[in-house]
Amino acid sequence: MGKRKDTNDDFIDDNDVEEVSPKKTAKTAAKSKAAAKKTKTTEEPATESSTTATASANDEKFHLLSEKKRAQVQEFKGVKFVNLREYYKDKDTGDWKPTKKGITLNKSELENLKKSIDDLIAGF
User: Fold this and answer.
1) Would you tell me how many other CB atoms lie within 10 Å of the CB of residue 9?
2) What InterPro entries has UniProt attached to this entry (predicted)?
3) CA angle at 27 for the pair 24 and 31, rounded to the nearest 5°
4) Which residue, 90, 6, 114, 85, is CA-closest to 40?
5) How many Å apart are CA 62 and CA 74, to the nearest integer?
6) 54, 71 in Cβ contact below 8 A?
7) Nearest to 54 by CA among 64, 40, 67, 69
């Protein structure tokens, strides 16, 4: 093996290096945009079941069914739906956020549920 050449070019002085600002990756940028789009609710749910309407941080009214379950009317593409959904408390921000667990009922499905509610209650 040959000897290694001694050169001063191998040494880089800290003063010669330009500072590089950290760049966001596409994935990080997409996550921050998605987080900004999602609705944030900061209203603490009551510990007991409640039938009164409560307003969230973005003025959406909802009814607490239990500590983690809510019912609310939402609009999607001009059509109103009843949204029954389970929520969780975000550890980082303390906001209540929706989970995948839930159901959305359109007007006719809600009417059918109203017609059969007495039978459902009798089954308990």
Assistant:
1) 6
2) PC4_C, ssDNA-bd_transcriptional_reg, Sub1/Tcp4-like
3) 95
4) 90
5) 10
6) no
7) 64
Structural domain range at position 117? 45-124
What is the pLDDT, as a whole number, of residue 60? 76
> In whole angstroms, what is the distance from residue 116 CA to residue 121 CA?
9
Residue 95 CA to residue 58 CA, distance in Å, equals 12
Whole-model pTM over 0.70: no
CATH number of the domain encompassing residue 84: 2.30.31.10
Residues 29, 32, 34, 35, Cα dihedral to 10°: 170
Angle at 103 (CA atoms; ends 116, 111), nearest 5 degrees: 30
pLDDT digits (tens, 9 = 90+) for 48-96: 444 566 666 566 789 999 999 999 999 999 999 999 999 999 999 999 9
Query: Residues with Cβ < 8 Å from 72, sequence gap 6 or more?
Result: 60, 61, 62, 63, 82, 83, 85
- 8 A C-beta contact, residue 61 and residue 52: no
Residue 39 belongs to a domain: no
Distance CA 40, CA 91 (A): 13
The two structure tokens encoding residue 43: 């209203």
